[in-house]
Each structure stands twice: as C-alpha cells, then as structure tokens.
Amino acid sequence: MKVLQLTAILIIQLISVLIFCIGFFPSKNVLEGDAVFEISSDAQLNAKPAFNKLVLVVIDALRSDFLFDQDISQFNYIHELSNNGYAWGFTAFSNPPTVTLPRLKGITTGSTPNFLDAILNVAEDDSSSNLKNQDSWPMQFAKHGKKIRFFGDDTWLKLFPHEIFTEYEGTNSFFVSDFEQVDHNVTRHLEKQIKEKNDWDALILHYLGLDHIGHKGGPTSKFMGPKHREMDSIIKNLFETVGQDENTLICVMGDHGMNEVGNHGGSSPGETSAGLVLISKKLKNFEVPSDQKGVKLPIKSVNVAPEEDKQYKFLTQIQQVDIVPTLSALFNIPFPKNNVGVMMPSILELLDPKLFRIKLQENFRQLMIVSNNKDIRQLYESYDFENTEIKDIISEMKDIQGELTSSATNYNVPLLYLGLGLIFILTLTISFWFYFSVLEVDFKNVLIVIISLLIGLSSFASSFVEEEHQIWWWIITGLITVSAINLPDQKIAHLVMFVCVRIIRGWNNSGQKYSYDRTISILLNTEYEDFQWYLNIATILYIMLKDSTDNLISFMFSYNLGSVCILYKVCWTIINQDHVPEPIYKAAIYICRRLSRDYSLQDISVVEENLIPIARFFFYSVLAIVIAIYGSAKLKLIKNPIKDIQKTLTFLLIFQSPSSYIGLFMVYDILQSSLSSLLVNQYSSNVMITSTISLVLQYFTFFQFGGTNSIATADLTNAYNGVSEDYNIYFVGFLMCVSNFAPAIYWAMFPWKVIYNQIKPNNKWNVFAENKLPIVYFNCIAGCFLLLSCFILRYHLFIWSVFSPKLCYYATWNIFMNLIVGWVLEIAVLSMVDK
Description:
By secondary structure, the protein is mostly helical.
C-alpha cells in the first residue's frame, strides 16, 4: 500500500511542477501579420535602398574575440578589410538563452527569446517554434519580391516556410563530432551561387563547424585556428566575387558565443558576446564608427586578473537584435512587427538624407506599439523628430528597448498559484507521513530534513544556485566526518572514502563562476594522453572482471560489453583526430578492417564506416543481456540478478561518458565497495542512511562530472552514439539524459545490493517504499522552496540566466531520475527478486 501512496505523491508532485512550468514559461504573445510603412509611406516605398544584395554568413558560436582579438583570431582577411575601411566591426550582445533557435529568432524578428526555445532547440521534429505567422526580415524580403537562397543549419528550415527560399539545403546541427563535412556541405554550393549571383537577392549561409569544435575541445582547441582560416577564406571568396559590387552587403556574425569550456546556453560574457562585421566596398566612402577610429585589427586584449571575467568587448557594442532594424533600413523594408531592436547609429549616414529621420521615427513608433505602454505612446506623440538631436532619439529608444527586453514574459499567475499550492499541500502531507513513519528522532532520520531545508533555502540565492556543487561537497565530506567520529575503529574505510571524494572533486570543473586549468580530466586530455587510455582500459577490465570470474555467463556478458565499449571509445577518438597510443590505435584499426573486410580503405575511413554499427551493436547487446538476465532470474539460473543488471548498466553509463571521465568509474566502484561494507557491517544496511547517502552522492557526482544548473553544460557529445541522420528525437533525448546523468544513475543503483540482496521476497515492496520515502520527501521540500523562489524572484535580474535553468533541471531530474530511473527501472529490477 505504501508503494501506491508514494507513487501517487510522485505523480502529483510531477503534475504540480509541470503546471507551474506551464505558467512560468508561457508562449509569448506576438503581433501577427506583416508590417507596412506607416510614416510617409510613399516616400519610403519610392526610396532607393542603400544596398540591393545581401550575403548573410552566420558562423555558429562566433565569439567576438574570434574576430578581433590578436591572441586568438585568425580571420586575417577580415582584419585587412577592416583596416582598409571596407569592414565595420561590432560586439553584439545576444540575450540568453544562448542557443541557436532562440538566437535565430532574435536576429530575424528582432524579438526577445522565449526561454523554452532553448529546450525546443534539440527537438528537430518540433514545429511549435516556427515563425510562419510572425513577421521577420526574411519574410519581408520575400514579400517584397526578393529571391532568397539558403544553405546551412536546418534550424532555419524549421523556423521559416520553405516557400520563401528559391533554393535551399539544410545540414544537421547536432552531430557535434563533425566539424568538416558539415561545413563542406555548405561551401560546396558557393561556386554555383557565385555564378548565379544575378538570380538571387539574399544568400544566407549558416556554418556549424566552429560551434562543434567548441563543444569538442573548447575555444582553444587545436582545430580552432584552421577553422578560423577556413571561414576567413570563404569571406575572401565572397568579397572578391559577389562583394565587388558596392551595392552588396556582406554580414558576418555569430548567433552566440561560447564559454571557456566551449559550451553555450547561459549568460556568461563569453556566451553572450557574439562577433559581427558589416562588409561592403561602399563603406570605404563613409566614416567608420567612432569606436573603430584609429583601431587596427587584430586588437591586443587587455589582461584581466584571474578572479575577473574576461568581458569580450571589442569595438562598437550593440544589442544583437539591432541587426534587424539595421538590415530593414538598409534594404528599405518595414521593420518586423515584434522587433525591439534599435537601428545602429553608424549606418544612418548610408541612408538617404531625406529618409533617415523617417526611419528613426518608424523605429520609435514600432517600439511604442510593441511596448503597448501609455506613457511611451504619449512620449512618441509629443516628440519633435525633426529638431531633436539624433543621439537623443537613439538614447530614448535604447531606454525603451531596455524596458522591453527586461519584461519580455507575461506569467500565467493563476497557474503559478495552482502549481505552488499543489506542491505546498503535498509537502505538508509527505512531512506528516515522514514524521509518523520514522517516529524516532535521531541523527539518521533528521539528516534528510536538514539536507532538504539546506538545499531548499539555497535556491533563493543566485550565487548558491550557480555554485550548488559547493554545498554538496560540504555535505558529503561532513557525512564522512560524522561517520568517522561515530566509528573510530573504521579509520581505513573512512580514509579511502575521503581520498575517493577528493579525487572526484578534482576530476572536473564545476560551477559557473570559476574554471580551473589543471583538473584531472584536463591533464589527461593534454599532458597524459597515453596514461588516460591505459587508465580507461584498466577501469573497464576492473569492472569487467570484478564479481564475474565465478560465473561463466556473467563473465561472457561483461567481456562482450567491455570489449565493444573500449573499441568504440578508441574509434571515436581516432575520428576526432585526438591522440591514441600506437598499440591501441593499431589494434582498433585491425579490428575495424576485419569487421569491414575492406583492406583498401584509409585508416580514418574504415573507422568511420564501423563507428555507427559498433555503437548499435553495443546497444543491442545491452538490451539482449538485460532480457537474458531477466529470463535467467525467472528460471533461477542466476542467483544474483541485481549484481548483473548493475554491471550491465554501468557499462552503458561508461559508454555514454566522455573518454577522459571513464577513470572516474573505478573511483566510484572503490568508493561504493567501502560504503557498502560499512553500511552492511556497521549500520546493519539501514535503509534511511543508505537512501540518504545515495541521494547525496547522486547530486555530488552529477556536479563533479561537469554538470551545473546552466543549460550551457548540457553535453550533447554522446547523445548521438549509434545515430544516423534520420534519427529519432526521443532516442536521442534518452541518450542525452543518460550521458548527462551518468554518475547520478550509477549512485541511484547503489542501494540495490545494500538493501535488496538480503531481504525476504515478501517484504521487498515495503523496503522499496522505505528507500523511496526520504528521496520523495527531499524532492517535495526542495521543490517547494525552488518554485516559491522562482515565483517571488520572477522579476529578478537573473531569473532567466540562473533560476529558470535551475527549474528546468529540477523538472528534468524529477522526470528522468526519479520517475524513470528511481521508479520504473528499480521496480523492474526488483521484480526479478524471487517471490
């Protein structure tokens, strides 16, 4: 009965969180329809545009320093163009969330992003985020008879109706291990487009390779320099062909930047500082922007103290959405209806002298309509556009823009109240149940209450949310210290635990404020690459052989999974052109050649040919082994199915983890062995203590695995293992969750062999409920505080950059870790225990 009651509480908790999220992340109200010229419409319609042909080159994750900083930029031709007066450079602030889909919405409609677009960014078959009924400059181009051709990231084809493009081809944006072919698939169209330059008015190119390099190796990857030069040569080709006509504008820009790890999605200076360059022969005839006067590119950046953030501010700083009214003005089309951008002051001199004040007034009027604010309307109606200084008009519009971007969301308050009310009632219910279930007030029972309140209260402080890993570090070390004091005769066991958690702590960067250059994983990837691979093989052999040598079937299962796992990881590394020790390299190539039976292919080609089949074989093997274990358990051929299931799933977790993290699983296993021995022998397999330790280690290892409360650290690298281009988004989503929550899943399985191995079959569901009670209690308490903090702080400066991602992680953790792993998977495993 307890299981059913707990399940009901879990379901109601999920419903309350989802209701709150629906109210917190509503679909933004937008003005539908297409804009038209409202002020002196005849004069605007008959005016000659500053340019009649546009080439837009979007280089995904093009951070501002990649274009302008002497220490890192290799865009030498762009530097030359700028120094000769043909290019104007800008640092464009991109509003978070800094992922492609919401940023493309921003640079085409001029609107502020909807936070949920960051989630929809990975849903390739989702159509709820398209711009079919929303005004944008591409739609205005098409409406005014301009012919658009597009090649690149297929997110554009997801956003816009295909009819607006006279020719197009999309490339997939999520195979992050590919940073050559994905760009070649765009560049191969250039020769034809250049020959047919009179047949189109706008050419849009979106390159993904630089972003993929960032995800793989960060902004200082050895592949970054060659990619800069490749992109620079493409700009040179375009300028020396299409760009020779002074009525052609080439716009090179990033949709967002990246942080020092190479990820994006958050609000750090590196992620929000995108580069932008306007290039045209016509610009030579005009005065460069004031911030660019006397500046020669590349710029020597100013060193900052280690504790300070690098700001990435180069040349003129603008809002990225300002590109929308700027392009609209230069090509003489109406400003999109939902635009909150302000024309760049530096381009006004390119407009017809009789026209630029009309364009400014049109821009002001359009901001007034979007704001729907009575005071702004009165200000507009009383404004003297003819005699007011241009800089004053721009300043006024910038103030309005600031208000619009800071109040972009209309919350559904009734749903927020409903979600909060449900989880509050649920929290009271579970608190009374918890109190009457445990009755005895001692440290082991009070511990989960203290942890729940500590994490819950921390959700009101943005710094604690950003650095949550610090809290879990002090919790785990505190627990080991208390246990060491309580059991002074177990010094060795506690020393092993301290060493293990310290190694886990130092393995990776975590948190959002600080990044360290000499973590264990970084050293393994840079200075000790050979040792990394021998450690990886040792880890897999250790897990393969442990508890398997006494059972032939178990050993065969482990041998199969371990061998395929290490082969795939080596092949993956070879394709990514990272270092592999020569003996291991030769062995992998030999095996791949035997598998393909084609000895004529080059090494890299034969590995590429086998990569997806090897991954799929691994997944099929996992599925077959799980089924075999289940059947063997039912037939009583295996005495301990839980042990075999745990080992099988551990190999799956290793398979879905980066190569430099594999060694962590040996540390996990050593820590688990010490903990298991202590809990069984010293704490009598106490369910409350075991469940609490499991919960703490789930969160501690999640954060020390590189996870944070920022979307920027959501790792997609292993989400496409074994996946071809015609992939299933649900399977990819599942692999992404397994990859990002791998250590948490490992420690969620930890209680199984501690509390289930010795139980009587008729008591297993009571033990299951006892195991889940503190976890459900924690999630209700922590969730109640988190939802309350999001409600109270919904107008806080950091609501979208700090608290909203935390809410998304909380919801995902509840669905995946608590429902799927903690409930569905654990019940399935427990059903194997004999009745």
